[in-house]
Design goal:
Order of helices and strands: HEEHEHEEHHEEHHHHHHHHHEEEEEE
Low-confidence stretches: 1-18
Radius of gyration: 21 Å
CATH topology of the largest domain: Glutaredoxin
Distance between the termini: 33 Å
Shape: globular
Number of helices: 14
CATH superfamily of the largest domain: Collagenase ColT, N-terminal domain
């Protein structure tokens, strides 16, 4: 089984009227503290999305506190559709491979539920809503690599029920990044920092190149925010804020980088690549990736008529069938045993990983309690006429 890698990007080009009479007719408005959600999703999901976006808004504001905050009396417009077809109609089918986008001209955000599921939709909104916030706080001239890199940091934020854990290092991203460095696929920093919006969008036509671009942008942003000295003090975050201030006051993105950091791009890239070799995947992100993989496997197998009464039955089915999971390009593959183990490779016991059968549920919940400070529960439901899943996370 291969899990597709979702690609989202903000749009600096005019969309085909993000709101038309036809598309708006069946949408109602659900208001939260900071957002006006135009949607045809069910009320519980719409309210949940609005509440979570408000918490993420506060995360954006806390990290960009040196910049003018958006007017709290003016809510951001967000359009969330149940069906992809309505999103495609909205955007004139010019961005068929995106799960969501931000239109800077109208300052509106759009996304859809179908195909990506609830967890995927929320990640998309965490990403795109950063573009929407930064467009006001920092300004419209944030260079595309940094805009996308920072957005992906928030995209990877883990929701615990009342807060986000930001700054995750997901295992899949690190594996791809290390492979790209080893294969010399990263764009030289001087070229990457100078890349225009138009060049970025043009490169999206080449899917492997687009994947590398996005992951490089995420990694460079992580480096600037989280790289630290031996005592744990951030190395570059103050310089990053200085760079953003320069951009806010009209300085070109590349010039702002050179003034805030250095024009010695080669040395900076060497420092970055050395840092990459020192970082490890975050525990929460690793377990969440395992949980999502098992959930997606269950969705696909249940869709083909397979049923399982226990986690052992699922594991035995995968092992006996010789299943392997691979990345989209086939570069990475692994046996499913890893997803039934903790991060040290030890099997998770029956109280740590199990199926919980609830009355009238479409499928049993997938529950994982790998440690005393992490509990995950995935339940399965129908969204847009397809079996989907949603994971709740508790980090006491």
């Amino acid at each position: 089984m291969t899990r597709s890698i979702r690609r989202v990007f903000y749009c600096c080009l005019a969309m085909v009227g993000i709101v038309t009479a036809a598309s708006a007719a069946d949408l109602r408005i659900v208001e939260s503290d900071h957002y006006a959600l135009h949607t045809d999703l069910d009320s519980d999901l719409a309210n949940s999305i609005g509440q979570r976006m408000d918490v993420m808004w506060s995360e954006y504001a806390r990290r960009l506190e040196d910049f003018p905050l958006p007017d709290r009396n003016k809510k951001f417009d967000v359009y969330v559709f149940d069906r992809k077809a309505d999103f495609v109609h909205l955007t004139g089918n010019r961005f068929p491979n995106t799960a969501g986008l931000f239109d800077a001209n109208n300052h509106q955000l759009a996304a859809f539920l179908e195909l990506q599921g609830r967890d995927g939709l929320r990640r998309t909104l965490q990403h795109e809503a950063f573009h929407q916030f930064a467009d006001v706080a920092v300004g419209p001239n944030l260079p595309v690599w940094l805009n996308e890199g920072l957005a992906q940091i928030f995209e990877e934020g883990i929701w615990t029920g009342d807060r986000f854990i930001i700054g995750q290092f997901p295992p899949g991203r690190l594996t791809r990044l290390q492979a790209d460095i080893a294969a010399n696929r990263l764009t030289p920093f001087k070229e990457f920092v100078a890349m225009s919006d138009e060049q970025w969008i043009s490169d999206l036509r080449d899917k492997p190149r687009a994947t590398t671009h996005y992951n490089q942008a995420w990694a460079m942003a992580q480096f600037l925010v989280y790289a630290a000295d031996a005592d744990g003090h951030p190395l570059f975050v103050d310089d990053l804020i200085d760079m953003l201030k320069l951009i806010h006051h009209g300085v070109n993105g590349q010039k702002a980088f050179e003034l805030a950091f250095s024009d010695n791009y080669t040395n900076f890239q060497i420092m970055f690549e050395h840092w990459v070799q020192t970082i490890q995947p975050s525990a929460q992100a690793s377990y969440l990736a395992h949980q999502a993989t098992l959930a997606q496997i269950m969705v696909e197998l249940y869709g083909s008529g397979q049923r399982f009464n226990s986690i052992d039955a699922l594991h035995n089915y995968l092992r006996s069938g010789g299943f392997y999971l691979s990345s989209e390009n086939g570069e990475f593959s692994m046996a499913p045993d890893a997803f039934f183990c903790d991060l040290t490779g030890r099997w998770l016991g029956p109280q740590q990983l199990f199926l919980d059968h609830r009355k009238n549920a479409l499928a049993p919940d997938l529950v994982c309690v790998p440690s005393s400070d992490l509990r995950m529960r995935t339940h399965f439901l129908m969204d847009a006429d397809a079996l989907s899943y949603e994971t709740t996370i508790d980090c006491p």
